[in-house]
Amino acid sequence: MQLSEQEIVRREKLKNLRALSIDPYPANLYPVNHTSKQIKQDFAEGKQVVIAGRLMSRRIQGKASFAELQDSEGRIQVYFNRDEICPGDDKTLYNDIYKKLLDIGDFIGIEGELFTTQVGEKTVMVKNFVVLSKSLKPLPLPKTDAEGNTFDEFNDPEMRYRQRYADLVVNPKVKDTFVKRTQITNTIREFYNDMGFLEVETPILQPIPGGAAARPFITHHNALNIPLYLRIANELYLKRLIVGGFDGVYEFAKDFRNEGMDRTHNPEFTVMEMYAAYKDYNWMMDTTEQLLEKIAMKLHGTTKVEFNGKTIDYKAPYKRIGILDAIKEHTGFDLYMKSEDEIRKACKALDIEVDETFGVGKMIDEIFGETCEPHYIQPTFIIDYPTEMSPLTKKHRSKEGLTERFELMVNGKELANAYSELNDPIEQRERFEEQLKLSEKGDDEAMFIDHDFLRALEYGMPPTSGIGIGIDRLTMFMTNNPSIQEVLFFPQMKPEKKAIEMSDNEKAIFEILKSQKTMNLADLKTQSGLSNKGWDKGMKGLAKHGLTKVTKTDDALIVELQD
User: Fold this and answer.
1) In what order do the strands lie in the sheet with 518-520?
2) Any idea which fold 504-561 has?
3) N or C: which terminal CB in the chain sees fewer CB atoms within 10 Å?
4) Residue 407 labelled as part of a binding site
5) Beta carbons within 10 angstroms of residue 390's beta carbon
6) CB-CB contact of 381 with 316 (8 Å)
7) Does pLDDT of 29 surpass 90?
């Protein structure tokens, strides 16, 4: 492991602390009785406090020093005075340990007394302190010059997501996002608990990945010698509980889908699913409006929430429009009761790419996604989906070929999906068999047949409505974060590339190419200013590292930087 100069210095300080018989990682409890927030809220001159946290800044002025301590609630100013800390002749605790052996980022515990400085700052006068954890790697803290300009901010997204622990320390607003996320889930729990519903848990490892149309992750159980799937949805298990006699159940579930990743999708995500007996999708729309209003008010004190430069108003009621009506409005194509060939022709006319594995439902989904979704910024219920799109949904009570399903769209994205649940076991089996035909046709997202779920339905399930709400996406909308990675503590990332040691010749070429990505080889050589020998060595080295690729065109040789 190659250490930086600062890391080497910090390890030397670690040795010196131990040489002074100080354990830099003590095991015993430290009796914290106040947080920074509590001190500020309940401040009283002369009050004795015990606090702990990271040392985040300090200004040493000989025998005295002002510093900042950061704990889970924020920061508080602390004042170190040599004679207060070391009343006797031995000044080691201040002169050596505090001034020389502590670093920014170290955890310390402080016993002190509250006072107010001449400029009105609430401060802790340090009477004694202990080292609780020595930091061996410098925090990526921003720097501010005399003019107030800030430099070296820790704002590179990839670094922040990989090192979320550092991100949380140096970027306070990040922590606020995750506090709000917990407030969202707590509000949902309170809402459903007040309705008398029961929070439950269902299996993550499942013999059949049911409840949604998605590509699953697969694993193998050695003892049972069977394949198992990480769940793509928890729907079918929750409906089994309705069969079993519960009138209302909900679950915050981790689901997994082996599909693409982008700013709004992560392969592991959180969904809240709720099922209520004796209800339908009309009741569910009314209830969902009430829930989202409550969440917005809890977090912001208003139903109007800013997101990505827009103001989203969660005040009920929300617009409701049929999916086929939306398509007709935005494309002019009336697809109601149209054949697969007719819908395929509409896709071609709209320049929407589909292949032979797509059935009616998937093609309509593509058309809606391409031509309609961006228009629904304010909360809108898209309702009454074709039967082919909704294999678990009850047929519409008055509209042939449609089902009682809705998706809630916000800012052009799906936030919730809900049905009047299909509870006819014979029809459900037929729907599953239609999905099997799609699978045989090549659709790798078609649903499996879950025979045990069909058996459960045969025992009888009452009229039921269910909903799934994406918690990650809801958190994005409620905290003004346009990327899902910002609302996941540890989003999935590509494997971290090892740092490559480059020679001076390689660096000279790489730095020029880094800004251009692709360059004419002759121009790159000229700009590098290297000798022929240095150029040859540099180019061979970069190719060996897999950083460059040279291709020949009709006119010249082109150098391309490789990711």
Assistant:
1) 518-520, 557-561, 548-552
2) Arc Repressor Mutant, subunit A (1.10.10)
3) N
4) yes
5) 22
6) no
7) yes
